[in-house]
Amino acid sequence: MAPYFAAILVTVGLSLVAETVLGSEGRVVTSRRLNLRYIATFCMTTVTLVLILMAGLRWMVGTDYGQYERNYVEYRDGFLTSLITFDEPGIRLLAVAASWINDDPAMMFFLAAVITVGLALRTYLRNTDGPIAFVLSLYILSASWHTSFNAVRQALAISLIFAAHRYIMQRRFLAYSVVVALATSFHLSAAVAILLYWIPFRKIRISGVLWIVVGTAMSFLAAEQILRFVLEITGLGVTAYVLRTVDPVRVLIALAPLALYASYSPKSTDDSKTWFYRNLAVWHAAISVPFSTSAYLYRYTLYTMIFMPLALAALTEFKQPLLRQWARVGIILLFGVVWYYEVSQTPDLNPFKWIWDRP
Question: Quick check: 72 and 108 in contact, CB under 8 A?
Answer without folding.
Answer: yes
